[in-house]
Structures are given as structure tokens and as C-alpha cells.
């Protein structure tokens, strides 16, 4: 007969004594169970003891978390750290004792159970007063700041409760010319969390710290400090009023050579912060992108008139209103606007709105020779192959906004930044100028007419996306990449890709494909399950800007259990099952959900609700009503894990990666089987059966 559901069988250890095997009644108070265990070893003062897990992260057990204890778990009796550290440790007058207590506190603060108990005893306030006193230095201060940050990270206490004196003290560590690296690192992280988590604290921090002061930290050789400094710059930029964002931005670009052009490789966290800065920078364009032009606004119409003046400056205005109006209409037609009479109407659609007009004006003023050449060489043509500059510039601006995702929120897991955008103060405008020249060149290569406008724009989009994928380090390198992606080269690449993906459509080939497909699907399934057995490391959400936290998950070799557990750092290889303290029987898994259906994606967080994060999220739902939540590090790992979990549950593997692998492997297998038929035309229908012979009286002589 199985034991009652409220009874779990556990082993409890104590140093120097034999382990106790007990049946823990989950209905009894935890303090009563601890008292009974202490009595078993003749230990007095049971209120000073606590239970913790013996394996894995060794988290402490409370009334709230005791329900997670499973049969066969090994526990350890330990002195309750909360009261010991609070009363006897961090407030001790003995320096060495206080240092050891703060060191232990920094380690234990990551435990949510310990954190809740410590915060209930006014632990946050005590640590804040220790910092405000200014009497802690070196290691002692570093451990204090680490513990404070870890405790606040649990979200139990609001950042709005932080005092101004604490902010000033933390800011002083950042502004000091010579300060310990560990103290500076934690101070930058604390200030960043303040800015991101409290609107009122942003203003207080902004009064103490300026972007100019932070730029000095980008010039150091320590990439960790650079990363934390950029993270704080991004936070200040994100929360700053719009009228201050542009001025902050102009200060930054001249200093990024210390980060991007350094001799050291860019680490993943630094790449993410550069990506965030890139996104926030382009998002400054959103207001202009979504602003419609007012055809009745004379100041805005003067900009269009300026475009006309720069292009046709040599022609004097004729006398007479009607003559001038007729000439302007002709000029606006030569400029390539759709509405020749009132070109302001071309800028009333969003996107790109006024942003397109800004781009055109920048080209006309900064690259005047290029602008005049493009306009005049097209306006002078009479063979219907002229490239309409105005219409092209508007559509190109819309396209660039889509490619660079202007107005989108940063993705928590993305590192996709482009170095060339950090090499120029007006990188967006210069990027547009390069691309409009590309468009004009491609138009001529295609000998396009107005009817081919959409085809030309498709080719230009492909040219730009292919060039960006090569990650040019500067705008000059971008020009070189685009120069090599002519229209003829795009056609060649398309043809090559089409041939490599060619799928013969004759009935015999289709039949062969159908026979091969089950074998290939089984091969893909085994590969996915093997990868799950190797396991993968996942990042915990919400800890990117501080000390990174990871957890690892892998499938048992017999495909019956998922093992997972927290890790101190990202592993370099395979993690043994012994280090993964938690497990889920595959038989308990009810389903796998993805995207916005995941429980951890239903939280209202700006970054977590980002489209790209949603595309990497999945959750395992298992009995009884529990979930294991994942955010894959990239699309490949997402496909591997969702496919593998679906295979475990006997469901179809429907990821993009499976479809791609299936097409690739089937194509390779078919080509191998058809090698002997190379250069032989395969008929659509089998050859006709010959007529029966007139007589069957024939033999074959083998001699």
C-alpha cells in the first residue's frame, strides 16, 4: 500500500553523527519536526537550527518551500543562518568576524528562502546603514554591496524605499578616480537597477551621475567594468526625457573606439549592451518616423522647396505666379515625387513620415554633389528608365526602418549589433546615403521602369540584408560589400540557392522522397534526443546586468527523466547528473507550450514581452500542475529542445529546424541514390509494357 500523500521519506544529516531516516509529515509544523530531529541527536535550542538540502544549491527549507521536498531527498540540519548572521555576524565589533559574516551573507543572499527571512528582520536597512556610514572598505564593502544587490534582486523590497544618502554614497564610489574594481562593478550594477526599477530614483541618480562621468569607465582595460558602465548608460538613456537623449548620445560615439576597436574579443554581455544601445539609438527616430507632414505647414513645405533649390539652383525663378507654379510642378516631377503639385502629400503616410524628408535633406546638404548627380541624371532621361528619387527615398526609408526594427523594444537575449553604427555621429543618415546610391545603381543595372519599382525594392532589400549579415566594421566596408552585391551577383546567388534547394517534381522522384522521409525523420528524432541527453545551459531571466546566473537541463540516457539544477557559472562541457539536484519523470509531462502561452511570458515586463524573447520561450507542464520554464539562448537551441520534448511525448516535430534538416537530408540522400542516373532524363511516366510475344516456345542456351 503506497504511503499517504502528505508523508515523504527523507534522510537528515548532521556532521559527526549517523543520518536519521524519518517520515516527514507535511501537515506538522516545520519547527516541530526540527525539534524532533534535534532531540534524536541530543541537541538543545532547536529554534537556532534549520533544514537545508544537502545537494545542489543547498537552499534552506521553510514552510512555504517544504512542499517541494520529494521522497528520497537528503537534507542537512544546520544552524539557522539568518539570526546568526544578523545578530552575531554583520553587527559584530570584531572585524574578522564581521568580514566572514558578510562573505557568507553575500553567498546566501541568492537563496530566496534565506532572503525573505533576512529581509523580515530589517536586513536591507542594516546593510544600507553600513554603506551610508562610509566605514567599510575593500572586501568588506564589496561583500556588503553584493549581498545588498542579491537581496534586492528578489523583488521583495521596493527600490523606492532607498534613501538619498545611500544613493549619494554609491554614486561616490563610481565617481572616485581610484576605487576597487569589485566595488565599482557592484556600484554600477546597483545604480542601474535603481534607474530601471524606479522612475523617482532615476532623477536622483541622474543628479549624481552624468554620462560624461561614465564615459571615463569605458577607457579602462577591464571589459567587465566597460560592460557595467554601458549598461548604466543604457538605463539612463532609456529613462531620460526625450529632450535629453540626443545630447547624451552625441557624447558617446567618440568613446566607443575603446570598446569596439580594442584588441580584446567582445564578450556576449558586452555585445548585448552594444545591441541595446543600438536599438535605443535608432528608437530616437521613431517620433519623426510616426510624424505625418502637415501640407499646410509653411516651415515644412520650405524643406521641400530647399530640396528643389539645391537641385536646380542655376535656374532663376520666372516672374508671374502661374509660370512659377508650372515650373515648380515640373521640378517636383523631376525630383521624383508622386504628387507633382503638392509633394508634401507624399510624406503624410507613416512610417516613414517626416523621417524620409529628414534623410533627403541630409543627403542634399551634406552630400550635395551626390544628390545633384542622382536627381539630374534621372530627370534628364526620356526613355522611361528614370529612377524617381523622391518616391525611392520615401520607400527606402520605410524599408530601412523595418530592417533595423526602429521602434521595437530591445530583446533580452539578443547580441546582434552592427559595429559600423558606432563609427559616426550621424550613422543613420550616412547609412541612408549609402543605400540610396545603391538603389540608384541597381535601378540602372536592372534597366527598370516605373512598373518595376517593387521588383527593384525587393532586390535592394536583399542586397542590404546580405551586406549587413557580413557585419561590416565601417561604412566604407559596407560600401565595398554592396559593391560586390550587384544585380547580376544577386541573380547568381538566387540561382545557386535555387539549384541547391531544387526538388524534382516528377512522380518517381516524389515517390522516392516519400519512401525516404520516415527514415530521415527517425534520424532527426534520434539526433534531437541525443542533444537533450548532452544537455544545455540556460540563463535565468532578470539577472543579465549583474552576476550571471545559469541553470542546466539534460535528459537521462534512458530517456525517462529530465534532470536540472542551478549552476554558479556557465559550464564549459557536459554537466554530470550528480550536480543536477532536481528531476522530472518524462511520464509526468503533460504538454509543452511555447511563446505567449508560457506562464513566465505572461508577466508584464517590457523586455519579456518582446517578440524575439517570446519566440525563444517554452515551458514543460507536468503533474501535479507544475511548470519548468525555459528561454533558449538562441533559435537553434529552441528548435532542438522543443523538437526533442515533442519526440519524447510522441508528437510531431514541427520546428523550422526540422523542416530545414528534413529538406537537406532528403535532398542529399536522393542525390546519392540517383548518382547512377546523372545526366539521364527521368520520365514522368513509366515506359509502356511491350506487347505479348506471338509464341512462348523459345529457350535460352547457356552453353
UniProtKB/TrEMBL annotation:
Feature: compositional bias, Polar residues: 694-703
Keyword set includes GTP-binding: no
Residue ranges constituting the ELMO domain according to the UniProt record: 299-468
Pfam families in alphabetical order: ELMO_ARM (PF11841), ELMO_CED12 (PF04727), PH_12 (PF16457)
GO molecular function (one): SH3 domain binding
Coiled-coil regions listed in the entry: none
Top-rank lineage group of the source organism: Eukaryota
Ranges where the record places region Disordered: 684-703
UniProt KW keywords: Apoptosis, Phagocytosis, SH3-binding
Cited function: Involved in cytoskeletal rearrangements required for phagocytosis of apoptotic cells and cell motility. Acts in association with DOCK1 and CRK. Was initially proposed to be required in complex with DOCK1 to activate Rac Rho small GTPases. May enhance the guanine nucleotide exchange factor (GEF) activity of DOCK1.
Annotated protein name in UniProt: ELMO domain-containing protein
Organism for this UniProt entry: Anabas testudineus (Climbing perch)
Amino acid at each position: 500500500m503506497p504511503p499517504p500523500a502528505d508523508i515523504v521519506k527523507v534522510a537528515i544529516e548532521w556532521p559527526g553523527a549517523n543520518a536519521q531516516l524519518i517520515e516527514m509529515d507535511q501537515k506538522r509544523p516545520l519547527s516541530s519536526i526540527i525539534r524532533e530531529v534535534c532531540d534524536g541527536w541530543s541537541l538543545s535550542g532547536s529554534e537556532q537550527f534549520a533544514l537545508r538540502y544537502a545537494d545542489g544549491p543547498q537552499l534552506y527549507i521553510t514552510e512555504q518551500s517544504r512542499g517541494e521536498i520529494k521522497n528520497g531527498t537528503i537534507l542537512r540540519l544546520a544552524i539557522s543562518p539568518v539570526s546568526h548572521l544578523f545578530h552575531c555576524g554583520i553587527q559584530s565589533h570584531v572585524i574578522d568576524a564581521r568580514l566572514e559574516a558578510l562573505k557568507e551573507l553575500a553567498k546566501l543572499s541568492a537563496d530566496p528562502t534565506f532572503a525573505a527571512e533576512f529581509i523580515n528582520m530589517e536586513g536591507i536597512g542594516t546593510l544600507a546603514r553600513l554603506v551610508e556610514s562610509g566605514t567599510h572598505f575593500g572586501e568588506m564593502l564589496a561583500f556588503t554591496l553584493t549581498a545588498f544587490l542579491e537581496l534586492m534582486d528578489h523583488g521583495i523590497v521596493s527600490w523606492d524605499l532607498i534613501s538619498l544618502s545611500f544613493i549619494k554614497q554609491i554614486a561616490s564610489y563610481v565617481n572616485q578616480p581610484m576605487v576597487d574594481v569589485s566595488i565599482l562593478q557592484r556600484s554600477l550594477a546597483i545604480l542601474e537597477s535603481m534607474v530601471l526599477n524606479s522612475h523617482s530614483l532615476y532623477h536622483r541618480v541622474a543628479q549624481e551621475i552624468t554620462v560624461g562621468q561614465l564615459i571615463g569607465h569605458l577607457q579602462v582595460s577591464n571589459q567587465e567594468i566597460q560592460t557595467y558602465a554601458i549598461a548604466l548608460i543604457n538605463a539612463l538613456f532609456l529613462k531620460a526625457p526625450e529632450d535629453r537623449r540626443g545630447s547624451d548620445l552625441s557624447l558617446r560615439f567618440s568613446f566607443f573606439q575603446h570598446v569596439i576597436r580594442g584588441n580584446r574579443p567582445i564578450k556576449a554581455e558586452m555585445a548585448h549592451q552594444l545591441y541595446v544601445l543600438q536599438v535605443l539609438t535608432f528608437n530616437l527616430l521613431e517620433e519623426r518616423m510616426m510624424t505625418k507632414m502637415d501640407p499646410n505647414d509653411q516651415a515644412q513645405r520650405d524643406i521641400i522647396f530647399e530640396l528643389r533649390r539645391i537641385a536646380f539652383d542655376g535656374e532663376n525663378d520666372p516672374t508671374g505666379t502661374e509660370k512659377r507654379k508650372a515650373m515648380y510642378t515640373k521640378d517636383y516631377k523631376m525630383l521624383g515625387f508622386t504628387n507633382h503639385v503638392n509633394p508634401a502629400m507624399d510624406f503624410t503616410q507613416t512610417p516613414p513620415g517626416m523621417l524620409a524628408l529628414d534623410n533627403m535633406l541630409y543627403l542634399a546638404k551634406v552630400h550635395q554633389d551626390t544628390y545633384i548627380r542622382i536627381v539630374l541624371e534621372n530627370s534628364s532621361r526620356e526613355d522611361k528608365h528614370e529612377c524617381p528619387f523622391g518616391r525611392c527615398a520615401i520607400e527606402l526609408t520605410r524599408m530601412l526602418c523595418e530592417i533595423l526594427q526602429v521602434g521595437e523594444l530591445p530583446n533580452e537575449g539578443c547580441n546582434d549589433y552592427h559595429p559600423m553604427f558606432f563609427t559616426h555621429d550621424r550613422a543613420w543618415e550616412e547609412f541612408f546615403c549609402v543605400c540610396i546610391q545603391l538603389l540608384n545603381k541597381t535601378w540602372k543595372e536592372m534597366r527598370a521602369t516605373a512598373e518595376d519599382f517593387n521588383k527593384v525594392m525587393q532586390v535592394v532589400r536583399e542586397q542590404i540584408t546580405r551586406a549587413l549579415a557580413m557585419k561590416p566594421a565601417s561604412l566604407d566596408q559596407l560600401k565595398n560589400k554592396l559593391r560586390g552585391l550587384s544585380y547580376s551577383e544577386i541573380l547568381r546567388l538566387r540561382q545557386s540557392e535555387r539549384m541547391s534547394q531544387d526538388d524534382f517534381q516528377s512522380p518517381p522522384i516524389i515517390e522516392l522522397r516519400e519512401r525516404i522521409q520516415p527514415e530521415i525523420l527517425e534520424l532527426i528524432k534520434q539526433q534531437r534526443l541525443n542533444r537533450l541527453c548532452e544537455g544545455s545551459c540556460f540563463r535565468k531571466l532578470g539577472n543579465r546586468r549583474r552576476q550571471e546566473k545559469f541553470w542546466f537541463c539534460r535528459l537521462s540516457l534512458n530517456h525517462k527523466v529530465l534532470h536540472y539544477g542551478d549552476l554558479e557559472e556557465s559550464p564549459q562541457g557536459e554537466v554530470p547528473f550528480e550536480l543536477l539536484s532536481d528531476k522530472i519523470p518524462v511520464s509526468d509531462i503533460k504538454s509543452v507550450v511555447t511563446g505567449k502561452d508560457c506562464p513566465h511570458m505572461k508577466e508584464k515586463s517590457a523586455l519579456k514581452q518582446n517578440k524575439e524573447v517570446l519566440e525563444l520561450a517554452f515551458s514543460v507542464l507536468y503533474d501535479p500542475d507544475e511548470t519548468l520554464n525555459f528561454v533558449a539562448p538562441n533559435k537553434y537551441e529552441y528548435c532542438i529542445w522543443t523538437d526533442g520534448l515533442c519526440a519524447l511525448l510522441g508528437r510531431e516535430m514541427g520546428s523550422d529546424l526540422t523542416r530545414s534538416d528534413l529538406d537537406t537530408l532528403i535532398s542529399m540522400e536522393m542525390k546519392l541514390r540517383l548518382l547512377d542516373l546523372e545526366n539521364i532524363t527521368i520520365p514522368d511516366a513509366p515506359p509502356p509494357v511491350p506487347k505479348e510475344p506471338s509464341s512462348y516456345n523459345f529457350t535460352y542456351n547457356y552453353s
